[in-house]
Amino acid sequence: MNAKEQVQQISGVNPYKCMKCGKCSATCPAYEEMDIKPHQFVSYVQSGNIEALAACKSMWKCLSCFACVERCPRDVQPGRILDAARQIVVRQRGGNYLTAEEIPPLVDEDLPQQLLVSAYRRYKR
Amino acid sequence: MQRIGVFVCHCGSNIAATVDVKKVAEMARLEPGVVFADDYQYMCSEAGQAKIGAAIKEYNLTGLVVCSCSPRMHEATFRKCAERYGLNPYMVEIANIREHCSWIHKDMEEATQKAVILARAAIAKVNLNAPLQAGESRVTKRALVIGGGIAGIQTALDIADAGYEVDIVEKTPSIGGRMSQLDKTFPTLDCSACILTPKMVDAAGHEKIKIYTYSEVEKVSGFVGDFTVDIRKKARSVDEAKCTGCGVCQEKCPSKKTPSEFNRGLNNRSAIYTPFAQAIPNVPVIDREACIKFKTGKCGVCEKVCQAGAINYAQEDEIITEKYGAIVVATGFDTIKLDKYDEYAYSQSKDVITSLELERIMNAAGPTKGHLERLSDGKAPKEIVFVQCVGSRCSDERGKPYCSKICCMYTAKHAMLIRDKYPDVNVTVFYIDVRTPGKNFDEFYRRAVEEYGVNYIKGQVGKVAPQPDGSLLVQGSDLIDNKQIKIKADMVVLATAIEPNQGVRNIATMLTASIDTNNFLTEAHPKLRPVESPTAGVFLSGVCQGPKDIPETVSQAGAAAVKVIGLLAKDKLTTNPCTAQADELLCNGCSNCAKVCPYGAITYETRQVNDHGIREDRRIAVVNKALCQGCGACTVTCPSGAMDLQGFSNRQLIAEVDAICR
Question: Quick one: chain A helix, strand, coil %, rounded to 5?
Fold first, then answer.
């Protein structure tokens, strides 16, 4: 499975449902902090540019507020794509999931708390 | 024994690319009764039909099997062809090897095998076919149009101008529909009322048109050419014959707190009201829910002030039963509810409005007398944001999956009109795509951008947040600049998706007309029969069939009228001879068939029967051939196997199954 298929499988998102309206980027509260914008998450998956997606800063700026998931008129859910990219990165770093003890030294002061909560929620499974 | 000819069509490459048509003909030749089999590129073409004709003569054929497309497409074509060459049309059977075979299979070998089996089944059936004679039914030369908007009015006028009687049934107190609520119309910007009201007057004054307003269709029975319809004329509480339309009752009515439906709830109306000044008929109705007299028994002001003595509190609903030959559905549309779109703050702020509400605000006869003002504080807005595709093109459950089609154009119109009348107002339009297919449509939109300075931004709005100072913070995407932009707006206008009117599903059910998952009525063929419902005698006009603008609606209304006229011009209709009949020796008179018959075609009579020499009086089912539509419900219900459908007899169907299983 290539990286693109991996993102699609983990996220359960079909990026081709996107009609490029930009509502995700319009709704994102962390937009200004991001280098790659929410609507671009989708086009990056469409074009298979997962490497760039996995290297983006946006991944660690996303609040996981899921506003883009809630408001997307096409049910594309850009937030889930980013979640999948995060998971791929975490997997690449070796070992499956982080344990709670491993978190404190990794915490960046700029990291939103909601992201941590979301990470626990996601990785505990 | 029949002498059967089998004709296998290539349908260009539609069939021949997936099915080995030569093989199908070759295999058919081996079947019992088949004396001739051939294949041809286009069997439905003139040359193809000539081939069939020649074979009928040369081989003295008594039955035909055409292996081609669906019988819905060309059964009638090949039946006519057979008749032309002297064969009874009901001696033709179609084996559908396109929709049921070539279009759905990829593997040629498998598809060919299936085509051979389908042909075999049709041959087995034709072997048992008998010539049938079509009967005749009468045509009531009167049409019913359900809905009195521009679609219904235009259809009615066109039918009436051809000399046929038409009745319009309109749910609200006046005809006029959505178009009467609009201010200007694209792309020419003529005033909606100026082009609509003369048509309303024409319809009202036409000697062939009868208008039932404040009325609804309650029951429909019968079939094409001979429908019987019950119309509920709701009690107006005002005598139409006496009322002079002076309007004093509306002025004096003390109950003035009901939101005006016509003005989309932007202001209030009295309990006794006409929806708008140019209403037809210009006779008010009393809204009994709001009327003080009806609620408490005390008041009666309208009765006191009415010089004509037209007020009648005791009036009751009336049921009118009328016969019609054809029925046109023209029930129109409404905008969707926005309660699930919290992000646009529609229910939180009075200054977030729908485009239809803006039409009322811009209209000189509207709640603000045509002044563009904020509904919250009456101030003139300086910054207006339009949001396109609100609820349209949504695949989630909040909106509609289709494009509402009219929004791009009316938004360009609104933007342009505002910039023209109030040049100091900034207008921004957020769009996903600008869709302007139509004569002079794209030019119109470009004028908004190039001449009127409307700021079009490619991107959607994600959030509208009402601010403490009364402004609205609009947060949207600019996908070209790759920026998130924030605009402090005074007013936000939402291009809200449209949907078929409430109640259309109920009407479709009464008419047994098919309807899609979005509640749009289905046409008989999306390209070739766009104004007819698959149910014979039912026609479609306007947005009830799918989103359309006024020019398209008027065109379709005219097309529906032509189809109705074509039907009403006939004195007799040929009926389907494939009707049910009961075998009097098998029928036990149990009444089960009469209970399931959707057309009320079955009655019972007591008749003397000679059962193998024993004469006795028995209760036997009798089918009215004019009413029977050949649905077959009775044949499967009959416990003794007495009911049989001509052309689809139990023997024929079993023979088909046997042929498939062989």
Answer: 60, 0, 40
pLDDT digit string, tens, across residues A91-106: 776 555 566 677 777 7
Report how many Cβ contacts below 8 Å link chain A to chain B.
67
Asked, for residue B312, whether it belongs to a domain, the answer is no
What's the mean pLDDT in A56-64? Answer: 87
For residue A35, give the chain B residue with the closest CA: B482
Burial class (CB in 10 A: 0-12, 13-18, 19+), B562: middle
The tally of domains found in chain B comes to: 5
CB contact under 8 A, A74 and B394: yes
Q: Is B460–A72 a contact, with Cβ atoms under 8 angstroms apart? A: no
- Count CA within 13 A, CB hemisphere, residue B435: 13
B383-390 and B426-431 strand pairing: parallel
Using a CB-CB cut-off of 8 Å, the residues of chain A touching B389 are 21, 73
Taking contacts as CB-CB distances below 8 angstroms, the residues of chain A near B487 are none
- Chain A residues at the B interface, defined by Cβ less than 8 Å, are 17, 19-28, 31-32, 37, 39, 67, 71-75
The shortest C-alpha distance from A26 to chain B (Å) reads 4
pLDDT of residue A125: 41
Tell me the average pLDDT across A16-31: 95
- On whether residue B131 sits in a domain, the answer given is no
d(CA A37, CA A16): 17
Name beta bridge partners: B5.
B36, B64
Per-residue confidence (pLDDT) for residue B574, from 0 to 100: 87
CB contact under 8 A, B394 and A73: yes
At B27, the pLDDT band (50, 70, 90 cuts) reads very high
* Residue B376 and residue B454 in one domain: yes
With 70 as the cut, is the pLDDT of residue B461 above it?
yes
A21 contacts B484? CB cut-off 8 A: no
The tokens for B157 are: 């006028």
With 0-12 / 13-18 / 19 or more C-beta atoms within 10 angstroms meaning exposed / middle / buried, residue B10 is buried
Residue A29 has what pLDDT? 93
Cα–Cα separations (whole angstroms), residue B435 to B187, B316, B402, B405, B453: 14, 49, 13, 8, 19
Task: Mark yes or no for CB contact B396/A73 under 8 Å.
Answer: yes
In this structure, are B22 and B61 located in the same domain?
yes
Tokens representing B169 are 């049934």
Measure the N-to-C terminal CA separation of chain B; round to a whole number of Å.
20
pLDDT band at residue B222 using 50, 70 and 90 as cut-offs: confident
Which residues of chain B make contact with A19, given a CB cutoff of 8 A? Answer: 393, 432
Where in the sequence is the domain holding B516, given as residue range(s)? 142-232+319-332+502-568
Return the CATH number at B603: 3.30.70.3270
State ipTM. Answer: 0.83
Buried/exposed B125-151: b ≥16 CB within 10 Å, e otherwise: bbbbbeebeeeebebbbbbbbbbbbbb
Ordered structural domains, chain A, with CATH: 3-123 (1.10.1060)
Closest to B278 measured CA to CA, from B173, B161, B190: B173
